[in-house]
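Example 328, ligand 2-acetamido-2-deoxy-beta-D-glucopyranose.
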Amino acid sequence: MAKLSVFSQFFLVLCCFVAINAMPNPQGPKGALVATAESGHFSYDDPNKWKEHNSLCAGEHQSPINIDTRKSKTAKFAPFNFHNYEKSLPENLENNGHTVQLTIDNLIKDLPTISGGGLEGPYEFAQMHFHWGEAEFGSEHKINRKQYAGEVHIVHWNKKYGNFVNATKHNDGLAVLGILIDLQDRDNIAFRHIEHFDGIKTASKKNEKLPYSVPLKDLLPSNTASFFRYEGSLTDARCNEDVIWTVFETPVHISHKQLEKFRQLSDDHGKPLSKNVRPTQHEHDRIVTYSGPEQKTSELPLVFPIYNPAAFAYYPFFPQNVPFMMVY
Ligand SMILES: *[C@@H]1O[C@H](CO)[C@@H](O)[C@H](O)[C@H]1NC(C)=O
């Protein structure tokens, strides 16, 4: 080994470089989680940078995803049971700097729960929050690359883990219902109470009691029997892979005017909270399951517009963020 050729030396250096990069992050996912998730400071200006502060965000079971209905497998799950979803319970709103979050007064004993729908449960309601965009594209999940105007997430935790924080340590710890929001001309009165933003224009820990409440049931889509199921993560910068996702195939509808109110809130730097959408993540080894009637309505021909051939050409190389939205 006295004299290595230039090529061997180069090869040696290359090997070391690869080995160093393959070493596990000494800080580990736990350390990163404490550093970012609990400080709660993150921005939607560049969600691709979250992984620089939190290695969990670079995981292989991240959310949201684009759901390709031609690749999903079909199953027949039992219908969902929505327990206490029809009850009017005292509700609070909070602007936490990233979203508008609705919670139910914690003095309530018998909180809404969900079970069935292929979930082992029950899962208890924790909170509900919203995602929206600067223009008409603000959903986090996409179906066949179609991005909707916004998305509601109803977050539940698995009661067998005792409390929310304990549940977040298990990959079946949370069950989130994702409801896509489409636009319509008239207001959706079920959402009217959620636009009580006067007291929460700026981000703070302050809860605003809603003057009246609407049962969670009224915020669900008309059809909850058709949905997509996959295992993923929280879509904020915590990135914990502890969520069993349900994305309903049928959207709910609100008006432009209603959606506009969300964009008038401010984030924790006092800047407009004009968007809070994480881009779709790679599905890696995951398979999405579809439960519902034979014909996926999302697969009906009308959903596919004329392809932009230029955009289509990129598809095999950039499976995420294909500029299909340009043609919708
Ligand atoms: C949460 O987990 C801790 C540690 O495992 C346990 O001691 C505690 O009892 C759990 N809390 C509940 C409410 O189950």
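Summary: The first helix runs from residue 6 to 22.
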